[in-house]
Design goal:
- Keywords: Disulfide bond, FAD, Flavoprotein, NAD, NADP, Nucleotide-binding, Oxidoreductase, Pyruvate, Redox-active center.
- With 470 residues, the protein is α/β, with parallel strands linked by helices.
- It folds into 3 domains: 206 residues, FAD/NAD(P)-binding domain, CATH 3.50.50.60; 108 residues, FAD/NAD(P)-binding domain (3-Layer(bba) Sandwich), CATH 3.50.50.60; 109 residues, FAD/NAD-linked reductase, C-terminal dimerisation domain (Enolase-like, domain 1, 2-Layer Sandwich).
- The strands form 6 sheets. Strands 1, 2, 3, 4, 5, 6 and 18 form a 7-stranded mixed β-sheet that branches. Strands 19-20-23-22-21 form a 5-stranded antiparallel β-sheet, with helices on both faces. It has a 4-stranded parallel β-sheet with strand order 10-9-8-14.
- A hairpin with a 2-residue loop joins strand 5 and strand 6.
- Helix 3 packs across helix 4 and helix 3 crosses helix 6.
- The longest helix is centred in the first third of the chain and has 18 residues.
- It is globular.
Length: 470
């Protein structure tokens, strides 16, 4: 058996693991990267990249149907579903070199393509190699959760790991789960010509602001997506030509079934107990510095048991690199934006309105800025949308946006919250006209309007100044 010594051993070549490996190697650490599956992990191969490519194709199809508002005759697009999947595959292939074994080896990382398992507190075995490292980083990601529903396993349902390889257009896609993945895939497939039914055990997008979710769901239902809320899937049957799901007291029949009911950390191959690493059903037990119960081992990304976002995994990488390479204190930020990439998009950062009310009580002010008041939105006939700004103590504490390009608009607010920027600074920004970003400036300015306009004291001061001026 080959014995390898390293400063850092990274287990998993998804977004978090790759960021750790690249950063550490380029700063002089001896790095070993262990990956038993595909380089790039879920994000590149079965998550962010293919889903956004599919959504882009669906948006192009929908654009052909939506020209009436501009005096353009609508047309029903002719959709070559297999060619759409070719676009998805090309997108993955175009990005793959950045995550490839060859690139990381060129950075000085030793890449081992095998599954790793701990054999002691300081050793990992990968095939016929034994790695002893000063520090380990668990970046094994997560996999789709399959609920314990009678008949589900035998129905061979699709998940995010298999749906992007499907080249036959579903005539009726049934989706179990109404989180971001389920809702994104529902809209994409509906726009690509499929009938779609979504089954939500409670309400759709339960972690997001109900007022904003209602705007999004109205669009999806208007496009023909059937969304059944408060109906837990109780049973699944395989039937000739497809499947049927019992939910809400009725059988829902479809040609294909997609399960988008959450994800579970992929730790089962790792034998963490042999290294003294505590784990739960959520993932590795870590502190705010991402260090596990074994002081030599960190966890990042989905394996760390928190929110499951590629950009969060990248942030985790920066946290552990700071600690491992420089011995500096570092902890995870609590300002993490999130986006559901539907049309309209749904974005959020900081506290939701419900969370802000619970924390700040009567000190909270909620400002609503509709997209209908934005000139760019009116010019593009995209006025369905709303920005909600939560303010306490003169500072923003949370922002939720539903509307066109909400994922781009949330960036300014992520900066404002992370930098503890005053609302007066946002209100004083000079922004290009006409842009959707002006919704931020207007929302911030609305905080000061009651104190400036119609205030008798302000009017009195203005009159005095005007009389004094030459």
């Amino acid at each position: 058996m080959e014995r390898i010594r390293a400063d850092i051993c990274v287990i998993g070549a998804g977004s978090g693991g790759l960021s750790v490996a690249a950063g550490a190697a380029q700063m002089g650490a001896r790095v070993v990267l262990v990956e038993g599956a595909e380089m790039g992990g879920d994000c590149l191969n079965a998550g962010c990249v293919p889903s956004k490519a599919l959504l882009a194709a669906a948006k192009a199809a929908q654009a052909m149907r939506g020209g009436a508002a501009f005096g353009i005759r609508p047309a029903e697009p002719e959709i070559d579903f297999a060619a759409v999947k070719d676009h998805v595959a090309r997108t993955i292939a175009a990005i793959a070199p950045h995550d490839s074994q060859e690139r990381f080896e060129s950075l000085g990382v030793r890449v081992l393509r095998d599954w790793g398992r701990f054999v002691s507190a300081g050793e990992l075995q990968a095939g016929d190699r034994l790695i002893r490292a000063r520090r380990f980083v668990i970046a094994t990601g997560s996999r789709p959760a399959l609920p314990d529903i009678p008949g589900l396993a035998s129905a061979n349902p699709l998940t995010n790991e298999t749906i992007f390889a499907l080249r036959e257009k579903p005539s009726h896609l049934v989706v179990i789960g109404a989180g971001p993945v389920g809702i994104e895939m529902a809209q994409a497939h509906r726009r690509l010509g499929c009938r779609v039914t979504v089954i939500a055990g409670a309400r759709a997008l339960p972690k997001d602001d109900p007022e904003l979710v209602a705007i999004l769901l109205a669009r999806l239902r208007g496009e023909g997506v059937e969304i059944v809320e408060g109906a837990r899937a109780e049973s699944v049957e395989t039937r000739p030509g497809g499947v049927a799901v019992l939910a809400g007291g009725r059988w829902i029949e479809g040609s294909h079934l997609l399960v988008a009911a959450g994800r579970v950390p992929a730790l089962d191959r790792l034998d963490p107990d042999r290294a003294g690493i505590a784990v739960t059903a959520r993932g590795v037990t870590v502190g705010p510095d991402l260090r596990s119960t074994n002081r030599r081992v960190y966890a990042v990304g989905d394996a760390a048991g928190g929110m499951q976002f590629t950009h969060l995994a990248g942030h985790h990488a920066s946290v552990v690199i700071r600690a491992m390479l420089f011995g500096l204190p570092s902890r995870v930020s609590d300002i993490i934006p999130r986006v559901t990439y539907t049309d309209p998009e749904l974005a959020h950062v900081g506290l939701t309105e419900a969370e802000a009310r619970a924390r700040h009580g009567d000190r909270l002010t909620v400002i609503r800025q509709p997209f209908a008041g934005n000139d760019r939105a009116m010019a593009e006939a995209r006025t369905e949308g709303l920005l909600k700004l939560m303010v306490a103590g003169g500072r923003p504490v949370g922002v939720s946006i539903v509307g066109d390009r909400a994922g781009e608009l949330i960036g300014l607010w992520a900066l404002a919250l992370a930098g503890r920027v005053k609302l007066s600074t946002v209100a004083g920004l000079v922004l290009p006209y006409p842009t959707l970003s002006e919704t931020a400036k207007r929302a911030a300015g609305a905080c000061f309007s009651p104190r400036l306009f119609g205030n008798p004291l302000v009017k009195g001061v203005v009159r005095l100044v005007q009389r004094a001026l030459p």
